[in-house]
Structure prediction request, 241 residues.
Amino acid sequence: MKKKRFVYKRVVLKLSGEALQGEEPYGINAETIRSIARQIKEIHNSGLEVIIVIGGGNIFRGTQTADQEGIDRSTADYMGMLATVINGLALQDVLERMDVVTRVQGAIEMKELVEPYIRRRAIRHLEKNRVVIMVGGTGNPYFTTDTAAALRAIELNADVILKATKVDGIYSSDPTRNKKARKFDKLTYIQVLQKGLQVMDATAVSLCMDNKVPIVVFNLKKEGNIKKIVQGKKIGSVVGE
Prediction:
């Protein structure tokens, strides 16, 4: 297949667990995960190197459970890491049914299910035209999968983090609740931190700022948005210097 020109060579796509549930109250919606897989296949088949970091909030959210149920925070976070493995395996299965070769690498060891995360091996997979799905967060409690996405982007020399959401960019407040919320087309890392905007957690934004990794926040529900972003079209909101 003829490769198309993209403004990036290697990207990290950050998917929340909620991105997989569609309109379901929890779990994985079959059509939603197929839509995501189609978009990934489209850019991958055109020559882009794709790393996916996936969350687990559609199955289990550690911080919320620790607060509500009284489970120790570290234990709850490890449970959340296991939820990301479920999502990663599901996405891998859907992608491979579409003839996209993938590897799932985990920050916590469970060799019967996923490969251990090894930086050089992950880079080799990318060079061999495989999509790499990262699960298990950073492998440590108290760190979000947003921070894992920033960390992997830096380690694997990705050009950008594509942060998938349910809205079309970064707003001054939740646009689904406040119709007067203002959309930002472009922000600096410092502005995001100072304004307390819920783009990614502060640790992730700080990591990106220190290592000059741009973040593009976009609406995943509009199929084709990922392709438009990597082609350089103005979609969503950009966080950079």
